[in-house]
Amino acid sequence: MERIKTDVLVIGAGSGGLSVAAGAVQMGADVTLLEGDRMGGDCLNYGCVPSKTLIAAGKHAHAMTSGADYGITPVKPKIDYAAAKRRVHEVIETIAPIDSQERFERLGVRVIREYGRFVDRDTVETGEHRITARRIVVATGSSPLVPPIDGLEDVPYLTNETLFDLMEAPSHLVIVGGGPIGMEMAQAHVRLGCKVTVIEGARALGKDDPEMAEIVLRHLRAEGVDIVEGAQAKRVSGRAGAIVVHTDKGDHRCSHLLMAVGRRANIDRLDLDRAGIEHDRAIRVGPDLRTTNRRVYAVGDVAGGMQFTHVAGYHGSTVIRPILFGLPARVRTDHIPWVTYTDPELAQVGMTEAQARERHGKSLTVLQAGFDHNDRAVTEGRTDGRIKVMVVRGRPVGVSIAGPHAGELIGLWALLIAKRMKIGAVTSMVAPYPTLGEISKRVAGQYYTPRLFESDWVKRAVRLVQRRTR
Predict the structure, then answer these.
(1) Which residues take part in binding NAD(+) (predicted)?
(2) Same domain for 310 and 283
């Protein structure tokens, strides 16, 4: 067995792990990276990249059916589902070199394509190597959570790790789980000619503002997605091509079943107890992402909390400071945006209205504006959307957007919250006309409307100035 001593050992080559490895090696550290599966992790191979590529295919198909209002005769698209999936894999292959073993080895990282497990507080062992490190970063990510539903183990089912290898279009896809993954894949598949039913035990898109979520769900239902809320999947029966999902609101027959009920941290292989690392469903970390073993940090999904690729990258860049320079670093979550890439999109940063009301009470001001008053949205016939901004003492503490390109619009607000800027920064911005970005300026202006246009003292001051300057 080869023995290796290294400054930084990174376990996991997803977004968080690769951020740490690239940053540390380019700053002069000796870095070793372990990855037992695919370089690039879940996002590249099973998550963000393939799902958004399939969503793009669905958008092209939908555009062919929805041009009547623009003088374009709708046509029924001829859909080649297998070709759409081949496109998914072509896109993965296009992006893969950025995350490849070859690229990281060129940077100077020692890459070992094996799984690792702790043998003590600073040592990790693989099949062929025993690695001792000054600092260790666990970035093993998460995997699809498959709940213990009676009969599920006896029928074939899909997860996000197997869906993109399916080359035959489902005649009827049942999705258990009405979160972002479930709703994105529901819309993509209904646009690609599949019958789709979503079964959700509580409320679909339940982590988002209900008013905003309803805008999205209304569009999905209009396109043909059958969304069954408040229905628990109790049992599964049948066989390949003829599966039945039994719920407390009735039975649902389908050709294919997709489980999309959440994620679980990948910690089973690690032998964390041997390293003195406390954990439950995920690794327990402090605000500096350090575990109960001071030599070990955890980043991304495996650290619990928000499970997004950009959060893993943020974590990775944060732990570089204490690992390489011994400087204090803390992560925060109030400025982290997230997006559900349905059409229309659903985006959030900071607190929802309900959360802000609970925390700030009467100090909260809620500003709202509809897309129907935005000229660019009107020209494109995309007026069913809304922006909601929660403001406390002049500073936004949360923003919810439902509408076209909501994921792009949320970036401005993420910046304001990250830098703790006041809402006046948006009102002083000059947005190009006509763009959807004017929506942000319009809603921000509402904060000053009662202070300027509805204030008696402002009106008296203006009249006084006008009399004196005649």
Answers:
(1) 177-184, 200, 262
(2) yes
178 marked as part of a ligand binding site: yes
Flag whether 427 is marked binding.
Answer: no
Question: Is 262 assigned to a binding site?
Answer: yes
407 is in an annotated binding site: no
Structural domain harbouring 163: 152-261
Q: Is 200 annotated as a binding residue?
A: yes
Total domains present in the chain: 3
Does residue 122 sit in the same domain as residue 135? yes
> Are residues 199 and 125 located together in one domain of the fold?
no
The verdict on 311 and 280 lying in the same domain is yes
183 annotated to a ligand binding site? yes
Establish whether 454 is an annotated binding residue. Answer: no
SS3 assignment for the chain? CEEEEEEEEEECCCHHHHHHHHHHHHCCCCEEEECCCCCCHHHHHCCHHHHHHHHHHHHHHHHCCCCHHHCCCCCCCCCCHHHHHHHHHHHHHHHHHHHCHHHHHHHCCEEECCCCEEEECCEEECCCEEEEEEEEEECCCEEECCCCCECHHHCCCECCCCHHHCCCCCCEEEEECCCHHHHHHHHHHHHCCCEEEEEECCCCCCCCCHHHHHHHHHHHHHHCCEEEECCCEEEEEEECCEEEEEEECEEEEECEEEECCCEEECCCCCCHHHHCCCECCCECCCCCCECCCCCEEECHHHHCCCCCHHHHHHHHHHHHHHHHHCCCCCCCCCCCEEEECCCCEEEEEECCHHHHHHHHHHHEEEEEEEHHHCHHHHHCCCCCCEEEEEEECCEEEEEEEEECCHHHHHHHHHHHHHCCCCCHHHHCCCCCCCCCCHHHHHHHHCCCHHHHCCCHHHHHHHHHHHHHCC
171 assigned to a ligand binding site? no
pLDDT at 452 over 90: no
362 is in an annotated binding site: no
Looking at the fold, whether 442 and 345 belong to one and the same domain comes out as: yes
In tens, the pLDDT along 81-139 reads 999 999 999 999 999 999 999 999 999 999 999 999 999 999 999 999 999 999 999 99
Same domain, 236 and 380: no
CATH number of the domain encompassing residue 248: 3.50.50.60
Whether 184 has a binding-site annotation, put simply, is yes
